[in-house]
Amino acid sequence: MRTEYHENLSQLARLLHEMCLRDRTAIATATNALVGGDIDQANLVIDIGAEVEAMAREAEQEAMRLLALQSPVARELRQVVTGIQLTGNLQRMATLATHIATAARRRHPEGAIPEPIQPLISRMGSAAVVIATGAAAVIEAPDPDTAAGLDQQDDLMDHLHEELLATLLDPAWAHGITTAVDLTLLGRYYERFADNAVEVGRRTIFLATGEKADEWSPAHRGDD
């Protein structure tokens, strides 16, 4: 019976991993839609977002079933509880990518991003893909050291976000208030996407060690 239970836990982990991969595809495609003004790619992101929503409901139902099936102990309980928490983070990542795609679709065919800002947005999109890739890796193989590294990857997104805000506040800004508001929101979406990916890492540290991310360090490992 425990063997079956552990297999069910593995199935939940695989579902979460697939959700994270979909999030990565969504943010990459949303960036392409935004920079290139591609309505088809924007619509694709919205479809991916709906798929992730359905997967999130499935993951939540599976986690609740696992809680009710047997009395999980120690690491098993951490896996189920962390699975429920990760579902929320992964669902929010898809939602944020959908917001970006919606902005691209709303401004079509004029385009939402002035040409001089497009390289910066592309870099933010690339940073989001990198951190989503890292989040997927730690879901697939929960290693606390790798999970902790997501914080460092998030530093790049923070720097890019600061650069975007500085550009918008520059007195030389010549692209209008509406565009500035759009870009402020878009920057926030990318930043929050990365923040949720970091939270995947922090929750994985708890899963692997039983310690909160703020309390854990490589020299201080918890026991199962």
From TrEMBL:
<comment type="similarity">
    <text>Belongs to the PhoU family.</text>
</comment>
<keyword id="KW-0592">Phosphate transport</keyword>
<feature type="domain" description="PhoU">
    <location>
        <begin position="121"/>
        <end position="203"/>
    </location>
</feature>
<dbReference type="GO" id="GO:0030643">
    <property type="term" value="P:intracellular phosphate ion homeostasis"/>
</dbReference>
<keyword id="KW-0813">Transport</keyword>
<comment type="subunit">
    <text>Homodimer.</text>
</comment>
<dbReference type="InterPro" id="IPR026022">
    <property type="entry name" value="PhoU_dom"/>
</dbReference>
<dbReference type="GO" id="GO:0045936">
    <property type="term" value="P:negative regulation of phosphate metabolic process"/>
</dbReference>
<protein>
    <submittedName>
        <fullName>Phosphate transport system regulatory protein PhoU</fullName>
    </submittedName>
</protein>
<dbReference type="InterPro" id="IPR028366">
    <property type="entry name" value="PhoU"/>
</dbReference>
<dbReference type="GO" id="GO:0005737">
    <property type="term" value="C:cytoplasm"/>
</dbReference>
<dbReference type="Pfam" id="PF01895">
    <property type="entry name" value="PhoU"/>
</dbReference>
<keyword id="KW-0963">Cytoplasm</keyword>
<dbReference type="InterPro" id="IPR038078">
    <property type="entry name" value="PhoU-like_sf"/>
</dbReference>
<dbReference type="GO" id="GO:0006817">
    <property type="term" value="P:phosphate ion transport"/>
</dbReference>
<feature type="domain" description="PhoU">
    <location>
        <begin position="17"/>
        <end position="103"/>
    </location>
</feature>
